[in-house]
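Q: Please design a sequence for this.
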C-alpha cells in the first residue's frame, strides 16, 4: 500500500513486524452466523469484496457488468472449484459478533435436483464449522431440520426465521384489510401466514384448486371458514405473493394493488400503477456496526428477517431450534424484535397517500 514510502525510504521500520504480528492474532469467534448464497452470476460484484460502490447500493443489473463477462465466467468456475463457505461480512451488535457466510452456489442451482446433495453438504459443513467455532446462533436459507436430526448433539441453534417473517407480513398488511389474495409457491411461511390471517378474521383467497386443497388440508377447521377459492383476480387489493407469481397474473391485478412478497426473492415489478413492498425485512438499529453494504436488493441498513431472526435468538438466549415444521411464538418474536430496536418498514401505499 505505501508505495511511495518504499520508493523514498520513508517507510516506518516497524511496519513489517506490525503487519506480521497482526496476522497472528486469534481468529474472531462469531456469536451468530447467517448463511446466504449468490443469486445471479453478477451478484458477486455486489459483495463487499467486489465493488464497494455497487455493494453500498441495492442490487440491480447494470449494463457495464456485461463487459466483465469473461471475469464473471472465471468467478463461476472458481466458485465451482472452491467448495466451502467464505466470510463476506462482519458486524457487531452490542456484545454480539455477527458474521455472514456465503455458500458458493447461485440461486438457480438451488432449484436443480442434481445440485441438491452438493448444496446440502455445503450447508451441513457450514453448520458443523459454526459449531466448532462456538457460534450460538445459525440462520439458514432452508428449513434445516435434516441437520438437527443428523446431528442431535448440536449446541448451535438453527433458525430459519419463519416466525419473524410471518410477524412482519402480518404487520405489513394495511389496517382495515378484510381480504387478501394468496398466490405463489406454498412454503412454511405461506401456510403460517394463511393460518394467522384466518384466525384474525381476514379472508384468504386462493386462485388454484391445488393450492386450496393443500391449505384446507393443513388448516382444516382452524381456517374458521375464511379460506376461499375464486377465479377473479380483481376481488382483492392486497396480494401476498411467492416465487410462482406469473407476469400474466400481475397484469390482471386491479390498479392500486399492493404486492407483498412472502418469499425471499422479490417479484418483478411490472406494474407502475401498483405498489410493491420489499421482501420481509426491517430497519436496523443504529447500534448495529459496520453496515457499509446492502443486503441484496434491500436499502442500506435494512436487513432481511431471516437474518434478524438469528440475531434475536442469540440476544434473547432462546434454546430451541426453529427449523423444519417448528416455529417460534410469533408475538414473542415480534415483541423482542421491537425491544431491540428493529423497526418495521413503511407500507408503500402509506408513503404515497
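A: Design:
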Amino acid at each position: 500500500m505505501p508505495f511511495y514510502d518504499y520508493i523514498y525510504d520513508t517507510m516506518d521500520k516497524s511496519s513489517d513486524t506490525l503487519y506480521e504480528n497482526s496476522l497472528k492474532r486469534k481468529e474472531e469467534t462469531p456469536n451468530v452466523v447467517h448463511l446466504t448464497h449468490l443469486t445471479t452470476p453478477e451478484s458477486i460484484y455486489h459483495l463487499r469484496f467486489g465493488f464497494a460502490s455497487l455493494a453500498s447500493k441495492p442490487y440491480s443489473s447494470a449494463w457495464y457488468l456485461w463487459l466483465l463477462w469473461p471475469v464473471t465466467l472465471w468467478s463461476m468456475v472458481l466458485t465451482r472449484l472452491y467448495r466451502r463457505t467464505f466470510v463476506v461480512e462482519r458486524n457487531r451488535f452490542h456484545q454480539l459478533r455477527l458474521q455472514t457466510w456465503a455458500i458458493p452456489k447461485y440461486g438457480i442451482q438451488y432449484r436443480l435436483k442434481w445440485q441438491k446433495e452438493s448444496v446440502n453438504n455445503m450447508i451441513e459443513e457450514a453448520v458443523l464449522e459454526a459449531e466448532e467455532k462456538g457460534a450460538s446462533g445459525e440462520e439458514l436459507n432452508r428449513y434445516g431440520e435434516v441437520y438437527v436430526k443428523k446431528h442431535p448433539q448440536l449446541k448451535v441453534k438453527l433458525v430459519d426465521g419463519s416466525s419473524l417473517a410471518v410477524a412482519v407480513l402480518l404487520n405489513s398488511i394495511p389496517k382495515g384489510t378484510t381480504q387478501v389474495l394468496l398466490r405463489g409457491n406454498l412454503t412454511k411461511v405461506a401456510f403460517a401466514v394463511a393460518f394467522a390471517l384466518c384466525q384474525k378474521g381476514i379472508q384468504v383467497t386462493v386462485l388454484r384448486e391445488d393450492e386450496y386443497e393443500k391449505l384446507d388440508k393443513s388448516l382444516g377447521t382452524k381456517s374458521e371458514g375464511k379460506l376461499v377459492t375464486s377465479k377473479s383476480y380483481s376481488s382483492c387489493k392486497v396480494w401476498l405473493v411467492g416465487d410462482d407469481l406469473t407476469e400474466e397474473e400481475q397484469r390482471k391485478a386491479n390498479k392500486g394493488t399492493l404486492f407483498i412478497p412472502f418469499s425471499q426473492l422479490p417479484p418483478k415489478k411490472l406494474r407502475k400503477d401498483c405498489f410493491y413492498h420489499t421482501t420481509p425485512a426491517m430497519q436496523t438499529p443504529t447500534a448495529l456496526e459496520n453496515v457499509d453494504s446492502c443486503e441484496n436488493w434491500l436499502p442500506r441498513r435494512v436487513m432481511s428477517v431471516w437474518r434478524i431472526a438469528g440475531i434475536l435468538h442469540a440476544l434473547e438466549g432462546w434454546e430451541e431450534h426453529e427449523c423444519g415444521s417448528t416455529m417460534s411464538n410469533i408475538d414473542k418474536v415480534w415483541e423482542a424484535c421491537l425491544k431491540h430496536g428493529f423497526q418495521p418498514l413503511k407500507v408503500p401505499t402509506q408513503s404515497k397517500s
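Q: Thanks. Anything notable?
A: The first strand starts at residue 32 and ends at 37. Residues 163-281 form a domain with the Rossmann fold fold (CATH 3.40.50.720).
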